[in-house]
Specification:
Elements (H helix, E strand, L loop, with lengths): L1 H18 L7 H9 L13 E8 H7 L18 E9 L18 H7 L4 H14 L7 H13 L12 H19 L4 H9 L3 E2 H7 L6 E8 L2 E13 L5 E4 L4 H4 L6 H4 L4 E2 L7
Antiparallel strand pairs: 1-2, 1-5, 3-7, 4-5, 5-6
Helix pairs in contact: 5-7
Length: 278
């Protein structure tokens, strides 16, 4: 307990140095920090929107060449397109230091053991599509995404302990929704062209290609003085079943997040799209 208190105190001190504590640390900063922990927070189905995240496969594998998912060649579909990261429940405003629910009710061990695992039938069902659209889901990312985000996505999951057979149906709906969004958001030509040519693309053009400023976040990284595309995150409305509806404007706590939208926050004007280094 002492270690946790001291760590938080040091973190707050650092944040004060960076942002200044006159008027307090920005809620978006606190929310991003608190939500990055592994602690459970929130209730299934109680949130405001969904964030759909796609990572640029080539960039990830250039950064992590020994990762088990990075076995595809540079000529493959995976190397020339985005890969599914996840579909994440999100709040419009910070809730008690959290910008999103996560690991919902993990602190109830009897409940958690009934909802936390992905059934083998679901993994078998989606294997071939994950191989193409979500290579990370063949090496463990699917388990993390389900436990952290999927368990919060639908209110109906609360009924699983009394109806265990419903879990596979809910997981099928969740993972099907992810793949549906992958297919309805193919890699735009400006991204493909930038990768093939090696020339940079304007950040504003990337924003327009994915719905326009305010409807997505762009995560970038800087290498050797160049800004590279890491991830695209689109905001979607959510229906009563916990499934995405249409693309919507993102809330301020998302747009001000250095994880979700650093490319815009840092005011980068252009970015490069990595080719896979085999």
């Amino acid at each position: 307990m002492t270690t946790i208190v001291l760590t938080c105190a040091v973190t707050v001190s650092v944040l004060c140095v960076v942002f200044g504590c006159v008027g307090g640390i920005p809620d978006a900063v606190i929310g991003s920090f608190m939500s990055s922990s592994e602690n459970p927070f929130g209730d299934p189905g109680v949130y405001d929107l969904l964030v759909f995240a796609m990572g640029w496969n080539a960039q990830f594998c250039n950064d992590n060449p020994d990762d088990k998912e990075c076995t595809f060649p540079s000529s493959s579909f995976q190397a020339q397109n985005f890969g599914l990261h996840g579909l994440w429940p999100q709040y419009n405003t910070t809730h008690s230091g959290h910008d999103w629910p996560q690991f919902c009710h993990k602190d109830d061990s009897s409940y958690w053991t009934k909802v936390a695992s992905i059934s083998s039938s679901i993994k078998d069902k989606f294997h071939s599509e994950w191989e193409q659209y979500a290579p990370g889901y063949l090496t463990g990312l699917e388990d993390h995404e389900w436990t952290k985000h999927g368990t919060c996505s639908m209110a109906a999951i609360l009924k699983v302990p009394s109806n265990p057979g419903a879990l596979a149906q809910l997981q099928e709906s969740y993972f099907s929704a992810q793949l549906g969004l992958m297919k309805s958001n193919p890699t735009p030509s400006i991204i493909s062209n930038a990768q093939q040519s090696g020339d940079p693309v304007k950040v504003n053009d990337v924003l327009e290609a994915f719905g326009g400023a305010g409807k997505l976040g762009i995560n970038c990284e800087v290498q050797n003085g160049k800004v590279y595309l890491n991830q695209i995150e689109l905001c979607y409305g959510v229906d009563t079943q916990g499934l995405p509806t249409k693309q919507i404007s993102c809330p301020d706590n998302f747009l001000q997040s250095s994880y979700d939208n650093n490319c815009v926050l840092e005011n980068y004007k252009e970015l490069y799209v990595a080719q896979l280094k085999n």
